[in-house]
Design goal:
mainly alpha; Tetracycline Repressor, domain 2; 9 helices; 72% helix; elongated
Length: 200
């Protein structure tokens, strides 16, 4: 009988190997060869799942999106109503404030770089950017619902401003050396949320 391959299990095994390499050595070290070695596979076997770097980046970005969505759901789990503290924690899920989230930002930068030369990656970058913008918009709407969005402030404008602020904080946190500490980044987000409550 032909051997039955559990593709879901093998993909999960590769996922774990990919993240071990990324967390240990940074996402730049994630290659077909390094992940194959980490998983104990041959590069040829791994290419059946990920024929090139772009496919690995796309796969990693999907993992990042799933993980960040799960964390955001956890922030609000059990809350009877949205609080300013929960909103801040929601926004912090997009910032590289610890090792795993730094790797997630490295994946995003890899996606952006590859988007210039690969149409598949460019399309995924647009989807992810739209997903983040939608999440930020939900924060602005929530602020309005709990009376923390000042009179005269436009939802669309404040969504763009907050999204741009998060993007800037990611760049400053990921700089070598970092231009901001995690504590300073949290303070900036907190101050911006406070300012949004003021009349425009």
């Amino acid at each position: 009988m032909p051997k039955v391959v559990d593709h879901a299990a093998r993909r999960a095994e590769l996922t774990e190997a990919l993240w071990r390499v990324a967390l240990r050595d940074g996402f730049d070290a994630v290659t077909v060869r390094s992940v194959a070695q980490e998983a104990g596979w041959s590069p040829g076997a791994l290419r059946h799942y990920f024929p090139d770097k772009a496919e690995m980046v796309l796969f990693a970005m999907d993992l990042v999106a799933q993980e960040s969505a799960t964390r955001i759901q956890t922030v609000y789990a059990g809350l009877e109503k949205v609080t300013p503290e929960a909103i801040q924690e929601h926004l912090e899920q997009f910032l590289p404030l610890d090792g795993p989230r730094r790797v997630e930002s490295e994946v995003w930068f890899a996606l952006v770089a590859l988007a210039h030369t690969d149409d598949r990656v460019a399309a995924r970058r647009t989807q992810i950017d739209d997903m983040i913008r939608g999440s930020v918009q939900s924060v602005v709407l929530a602020l309005g619902e709990i009376g923390r969005l000042g009179k005269g402030r436009e939802e669309a404008v404040e969504t763009m401003r907050l999204h741009a602020l998060l993007d800037g904080l990611v760049i400053q946190l990921m700089a070598e050396p970092p231009r901001l500490s995690p504590q300073e980044a949290r303070a900036v987000v907190g101050r911006h949320l406070t300012d949004l409550a003021a009349v425009s």
